[in-house]
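FORM 12-B: Structure-to-Sequence Request
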């Protein structure tokens, strides 16, 4: 789906349901297409935020590993002297 194309109702339901939200509950509480669209964008924003946070955690762990590896290399060089 391109950025300038508005998602279809089916695509919106796929995203909403992928977040663990049951369709029956949504249809009871958000009966109009506008409501579903608003919920879709909220869910999509939340999923994007969660992916960003996961990426930040992985990057921090990777940087820590690099720091530890570099430290171990310095220690190994110092021990060889």
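FORM 12-B RESPONSE
SEQUENCE OUT:
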């Amino acid at each position: 789906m391109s950025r300038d194309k508005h998602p279809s109702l089916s695509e919106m339901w796929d995203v909403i349901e992928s977040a663990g939200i049951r369709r029956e509950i949504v249809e009871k509480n958000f009966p109009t297409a506008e409501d579903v669209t608003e919920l879709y964008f909220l869910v999509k924003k939340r999923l994007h935020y969660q992916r960003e946070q996961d990426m930040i955690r992985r990057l921090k762990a990777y940087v820590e590993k690099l720091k530890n590896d570099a430290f171990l290399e310095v220690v190994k060089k110092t021990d060889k002297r």
